[in-house]
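## Example record

The block below lists the input lines for one assembly entry, exactly as stored, with component labels intact.
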Amino acid sequence: MAILVIAEHNNGALGAATLNTVAAAQKIGGDIAVLVAGQNVGGVAEAAVKIAGVAKVLVADNAAYAHQLPENVAPLVAELGNGYSHVLAPATTNGKNFLPRVAALLDVDQISEIIEVVSADTFKRPIYAGNAIATVQSSAAVKVITVRGTGFDAVAAEGGSAAVEAVSGPADAGKSAFVGEELAKSDRPELTAAKIVVSGGRGMGNGDNFSILYSLADKLGAAVGASRAAVDAGFVPNDMQVGQTGKIVAPQLYVAVGISGAIQHLAGMKDSKVIVAINKDEEAPIFQVADYGLVGDLFELIPELEKAI
Amino acid sequence: MKVLVAVKRVVDYNVKVRVKADHSGVDLANVKMSMNPFCEIAVEEAVRLKEKGVASEIVVVSVGPSGAQEQLRTALALGADRAVLVESNDELSSLAVAKALKALVDKEQPQLVILGKQAIDSDNNQTGQMLAALTGYAQGTFASKVEVAGDKVNVTREIDGGLQTVALNLPAIVTTDLRLNEPRYASLPNIMKAKKKPLEFLPPDVLGISMTSTVKTLKVEAPAARSAGIKVKSVAELVEKLKNEAKVI
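Predicted structure tokens for the full assembly:
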């Protein structure tokens, strides 16, 4: 078996989710090749070569792949993918964007967001916002799969020595163009990779009040997340949203502050090792999944907590 | 221009589903069904495009069981002009649905197809992208803003680090994210009027498509339950537990 893993990157740096995806590929077993498609991706390819367990790094360096527009990248991956038994991508917004397009070009069904490899053709994935776990088997010649990063421990980023091979694929399809992007700036750890996540909900009251969470997070070295209610109310930008429709996190410690614990929020964080809930409503559903619950006013408790740590 | 909107009948998002004892699936008998929340946003966006004079006709389509008529009527009450149901009682994969939609796109020739980004039952997040591949159209997934300008559509997309804007040639496929809009409610007079709007039934074989899948579900289980937690009385106790018992800080 040979497995093709599509690297997550921003042309400058390799995305951490790639390492979790390689870990899933190792569980399937077989020779692992990593595809780096983008523009001026020399640095990313160098990082990919060092990933433990990778046999080959394919580099497709072309202006058409610069922003990884699916109209251009999917035909490349489909063309390469035909030679592999499995094509894997991280279940990031980028992976979710182009990989189903690849699957349809190969005329196979895709398996989304696997959390466990049972065997080379059988996988587990959550459905119904994580309220059920389905075991699915694929009979496709090329198994096209996205991998939920929090389901697999990352492989080592160092120690590998893969061979590098330049590949080329179809040119710009001319159907779409990148116009621009607005990225939220943050010095804190990335939400999906952080060991500790502190999240705020509607109970925070307004955006300014999030400063007490930022301050606590900085003390803990934590990332800051939010519930959909907090995002919809405009307290924080949407890329901080944790949940079925936002990011899926599974840190060592998740601190939910002023979050009631709706099904769609729990889908994004209930695999955290330890969950702490701080809420003034002792009936809030979040307390049913919390390892440690503290009932009270968050505006008193959070500063007190920060001081105590 | 003509806009095609795909909607799915799913278990209502407020329902906490239960896994069947024989592990064959989740129990959907006597459970409240609704339109998938992302599909509601898709219908709303199409209606707003019509209100702005950009769209001339909205065709709403569902691929699924006969019960999906209910969701199509809802979409008609919200402002869609006519509906098509591709009727199949099988459990359909995203690829099968995308193939059925491709056949309808060939027939209806819409300039824009709007779908939700994912259905809250299968959580696949595939159909829109697959339809884009099958039709060869450009795709604007996870849209939080859609602006039609001449023969292009500018789509602002929600990506991991923030927002990204792409310009797509029409015809194009757009999938909706939560923040694209806030769907309206259907008024009673509109619900009555929707009953008179046309709803066409098509079996998949009329469209010449096979509904077979390369993926089969072997088993559906409940997720591992978390062991019951405790309520602590003070911040001091919480910090002590986190340090000594859970050892996470």
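Chain B has seven helices and 13 strands. The two ends of chain B are 58 Å apart (CA to CA).
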